[in-house]
Design goal:
single chain; 2 domains; about 25% helix; five-stranded antiparallel sheet; HECTD3; Galactose-bd-like_sf; alpha+beta; Jelly Rolls; four-stranded antiparallel sheet; APC_su10/DOC_dom; ubiquitin-protein transferase activity
Length: about 230
């Protein structure tokens, strides 16, 4: 801990990082900005790949073929890094709702397994199936291994991503210029290298906490007792 540093300094540094990083990441439509093409394994009629990105609740993609042979492939623009990838489920589809999916990523001819997800039957609409990638993956492929009730085909209302450019990920001491610290009085006058090292520590802590937070809260039957030690 830097000399003279306090919890309030950490809070102010956290606000600074949020204002100069997270808000930038949340701008615009990530699908339009970072995805160059969406392909699907098959489709029924007009229920094709375009329905996955049109943000319409009445449209959907529906596959057509044997069980376990369905996929959606995202071609990512050069330099994009995925922070979160969601499936938007058609919760009224019953046997069309995916139960188990696998995510692969990498160059088109060398896709590697990233994660397999078992989707809870109580999940409602948006389900996160991938998070916190560290490098650019030219292709992301979602493979639908199993549907509910032994269904054959998949139906999705959409796909959403939260992503950023790899150059936005770079954290260095240059971002702590005096002109940027005017609204953060506790940080003014602190050596930029000290701010940088503390910022790296905070970001690492946030990544670790975020990866386990879903297992800690909410516990509705004991929410106060659970939250106080965490805080």
């Amino acid at each position: 801990v830097p000399p003279g540093w306090s919890y309030e300094h950490d809070m102010e540094l956290g606000r600074f990082l949020y204002n100069h990083n997270e808000r930038v990441l949340q701008r615009g439509d990530c699908m339009t900005e970072h995805v160059s093409n969406v392909e699907v394994s098959s489709q029924v009629g007009d229920c094709g790949a375009a329905s996955l990105t049109d943000n319409q609740t009445y449209s959907f993609w529906e596959s057509n073929g044997p069980a376990g042979q369905h996929w959606v492939r995202l071609s990512m623009k050069k330099g994009s890094i995925v922070k979160k990838l969601w499936l938007v489920l058609d919760v009224n589809g019953n046997s069309y709702v995916p139960r188990r999916v696998a995510v692969y990523g990498g160059p088109p001819n060398r896709l590697q397994h990233l994660r397999t997800v078992l989707i809870n039957e109580n999940s409602f609409q948006n389900v996160c199936i991938l998070r916190n990638m560290k490098i650019h993956l030219p292709v992301l492929e979602i493979r639908f291994l199993e549907c509910r009730d032994q269904g054959y085909n998949v139906r999705l209302q959409g796909i959403k991503i939260k992503s950023f450019w790899e150059w936005d990920l770079i954290l260095n001491s240059d971002i702590f210029q005096p002109a940027r610290l005017v609204r953060y009085p506790l940080l003014e006058g602190v050596d930029t290298d000290v701010l940088y090292r503390r910022a790296v520590l905070i970001q690492r802590f946030v990544q670790i906490l975020d990866s386990v937070l879903c297992y800690l809260i909410p516990l509705f039957e004991d929410s106060t007792g659970t939250f106080n030690p965490l805080r």
